[in-house]
Amino acid sequence: PESTIRAVSCDRSTMRFEANAFLGTWPIGIAADRGCSAEISRSLFFNNDIGVNVAADAGRVTVRRSTFVRGNTGVKSSGKSSSLEGGDNLFYETTAGISATSDLAGRALGRNAVWKSRIMVQGRNAGGVDLVRTQPRFQAAESYDFRLAPGQSQLATSELEPGAELGAFQF
Fold it and tell me: Average pLDDT in the 146-166 region?
């Protein structure tokens, strides 16, 4: 069920999220709060206000191989630059795919695919980020099937797994 706050909150612990779906109008899908170290991979965030929120006092948070669709912000980081790492994510029609209040090195964010989404650092478009900018075609988005259809530039462009796609789902 949807909440008025967040789907999952991590505080002073280490958590791993793999192959989860956060569907609906959650204000925050995953909140990485004080002392939280989290690995988030192969997960779908659909229509959340913020998919993953990384607090200023969070530990290391890694977001990889996940898909963010039609939310306000895919990943929001209020923390120090070394606390967020990512790569091989797909941001589709999110106002900000990634929004960070402190400087982030482009290499820490890895390669990501964006469509009608921006990567923002300190209120400006981020430089030095490896982006694939092509409109993805999904297998059946109307029924929440966000696997990429074959024959697109996003396919086989993963930095982390050669031959794999960007985003959470393989075709």
Answer: 79
CB-based burial label for 162 (10 Å; 0-12, 13-18, 19+): exposed
The 3-state DSSP class for residue 106 equals: helix
Token digits for 27? 């204000």
> Are 128 and 105 in contact, with CB atoms under 8 Å apart?
yes
d(CA 104, CA 117): 17
- What's the rounded Cα separation, in Å, for the pair 23 and 79? 25
Separation CA 130–CA 112 (nearest Å): 7
pLDDT tens for residues 38-79?
999 999 999 999 999 999 999 999 999 999 999 999 999 986
Give the chain's mean pLDDT: 88
**Total number of residues shown for the chain:** 171
Residue 167 has pLDDT above 90, yes or no: no
Contacts of residue 92, defined as CB under 8 A and 6 or more positions apart, other chains included, come to: 67, 68, 69, 70, 114, 115, 116, 117, 136, 146
Q: Tokens at residue 33, please?
A: 């709060």
Assess whether pLDDT exceeds 90 at residue 2: no
> In the predicted model, is pLDDT for residue 104 greater than 60?
yes
